[in-house]
Amino acid sequence: MSGRRRSTPWPERLRMWLVIVAVAASLTACDKAEDDESEYPSQSKLEPIKGIPGHHTVTLTPLGAKQVGIQTTPVAGSNKLKELPYDALLYGADGTTFIYTSPKALTYRYAKITLEKIVGERIYFSEGPKVGTQVVTRGVPQVHGADIELEFGEIA
User: Fold this and answer.
1) Distance, CA of 130 to CA of 77 (rounded, Å)
2) Would you call 135 helix, strand, or coil by DSSP?
3) 134 to each of 14, 78, 82, how far by Cα in Å?
4) Can you give the pLDDT at residue 10?
5) 125-156 b/e (C-beta count within 10 Å ≥ 16 → b)
6) What confidence score (pLDDT) does residue 11 get?
7) How far is Cα 131 from Cα 83, in angstroms, rounded to an integer?
8) Residue 13: its pLDDT value, please?
9) Which are the contacts of 100, defined by CB distance < 8 A and separation ≥ 6?
10) Which of 46, 88, 100, 142 has the fewest Cβ atoms nearer than 10 Å?
11) Which of 16, 12, 13 has the alpha carbon at shortest distance from 24?
12) CA–CA dist 8, 54 (Å, integer)
């Protein structure tokens, strides 16, 4: 034996360096993914509604509300028969009807209504929020999805 160390062939050394670079890159990508999550904070906050299991008060950030395109309109009509655009209306699986009110800016809350009739693009209801209450008319599906904590890919 000559004491001389046998060197690793060039292609094998290159392969080892490529593996090392790939592992380092993947570790860097993992760190970057964690950083990216902090760049995109949650656009909503949920607080359970006491007495209404499964529903929440949804509070959006200004950016979240802008991305969803939230629009509201006040309940019109009289105390006996109130009205709203049809776009505000949602149906529960059991046939109940409900809407989402906006008690204050960027805050949305489930509200059950007693639907009396639908005429064209207007709904008329007897029980529910009082005249003048702001109700979500655009962005309703997104608010509902947040309310019931719908995960991406699930069906409500």
Assistant:
1) 9
2) strand
3) 67, 15, 13
4) 55
5) beebbeeebbbbbbbbebbbbbbeeeeeeeee
6) 61
7) 9
8) 60
9) 58, 88, 90, 108, 109, 110, 111, 135, 136, 140, 143, 144, 147
10) 46
11) 16
12) 64
Give me the pLDDT at residue 123, please: 98
Residues of the chain predicted below pLDDT 70: 1-41, 151-156
Q: What is the pLDDT of residues 53-93, one digit of tens each?
A: 999 999 999 999 999 999 999 999 998 999 999 999 999 99
Q: 118: which strand partners?
A: 123
Instruction: Give backbone dihedrals phi and psi of 32, rounded to 5 degrees, phi first.
Output: -65, -40
Instruction: Please report the pLDDT score of residue 34 as a whole number.
Output: 46
CA distance 62 to 45: 12
Tokens 């019109």 label which residue? 76
Question: For residue 5, what pLDDT is reported?
Answer: 59
Report strand pairing: 71-74 vs 134-138: antiparallel
Structure tokens at 42: 């949650």
